[in-house]
Amino acid sequence: MSFEExxxxxxxxxxxxxxxxTLYTYDNVNFTSKLNVNYSELVSKNLGVINSIQETRxxxxxxxxxxxxxxxxxxxxxxxxxxxxxxxxxxxxxMKNNNLITIIVLCNDRMLDRFVxxxxxxxxxxxxxxxxxxxxxxLNFEFKNRLRDIIVDHELKLRQLTSKYGxxxxxxxxxxxxxxxxxxxxxxxxxxNLNALINKTSQLNSSANSFRRRTVLVKRKLWWSxxxxxxxxxxxxIFIIYLFIGLECGLPFxxxxxxxxxxxxxxxxEY
Length: 271
Fold this sequence. Notes:
By secondary structure, the chain is an alpha+beta fold. The chain has 2 domains: 163 residues, 2-Layer Sandwich (Beta-Lactamase); 91 residues. Helix content is 55%, strand content 20%. It is built from 7 helices and 5 strands. The chain has a 5-stranded antiparallel β-sheet, with helices on both faces. A hairpin with a 2-residue loop joins strand 1 and strand 2. The radius of gyration is 42 Å and the shape is rod-shaped. The N and C termini lie far apart (154 Å). It is found in: Endomembrane system. This is V-SNARE coiled-coil homology domain-containing protein. Belongs to the synaptobrevin family. One of its GO terms (cellular component) is membrane.
C-alpha cells in the first residue's frame, strides 16, 4: 500500500473529552509527525467552539486545505511534499446530568464520511457501556488502549474493502467511495432494522409476560369461583336433606328422633 493510499484510510488523531476536558487521545505519529501545522492547537481551538452549545450532535468541518506532509523520498535526500486537506469530525452527546461527552476525529477529507461516523458511534457506545459510569484513574489506560484498538480495527476493515474493490485511479477511488458508502449505509440500515426487531421482540416478550400473569390471575379467580360454587351447591344439598329429615323428626333439632317420648302404659281397670 502506497503512502497516499494509507493516508486516505487512516485516522491521524482522535480524542474523547468530558465537559471540554480531554480524557483520552489517539495519535498516529506516522502522519502527525509529518504535518507542517500544529494540529493539536487546531483541535483545541475548535473544541471550544463545538462545545459552546450543549446539545447532542454529530457533524464535520474542514480545518485546513493543502496541508503539507513531509514524506521521506527514496530517490532524493530532500523529502517530497504530499498535500492533504484536514477534516475534523465530532460527535457530542449530552447526558441527563448535563455532562457533555465529545469525540473528535482528525483525518483526510477523502476519508469516507460514513466510516468516520460509524467509528465515532462505536467509540461512544464502548465508552458509555463500559467506562463512563465507573470512570476512575484505574481505567484511563485501559480505555486508551481500547480506543486505539477500535480505530486500528476500523482502519483495517476500510483497507480490506478498498483492496477488495481494486481501486487503481482517482476516478476509481471516487466510484469506490460511493459504492462503499452505499454498502455501509445498507449495513447500518440492516443494523437499525435489527435494533427495531430486537425492540419489537422485547416488547412481545413483555406482552407475553403480562399475558401470562393475567392468565394466572384469571385461573385463580376461576378456581375460587368453582370452589364457591361447589360450597354453595353442597350447602344447598345439605340444607334440603336437613329439611326432609326435619319433617319426619321435627325441626329444628330432630327431637322426635333423638329424644323420643316413652310410650304410656295402659291403665288397668279396677274391679
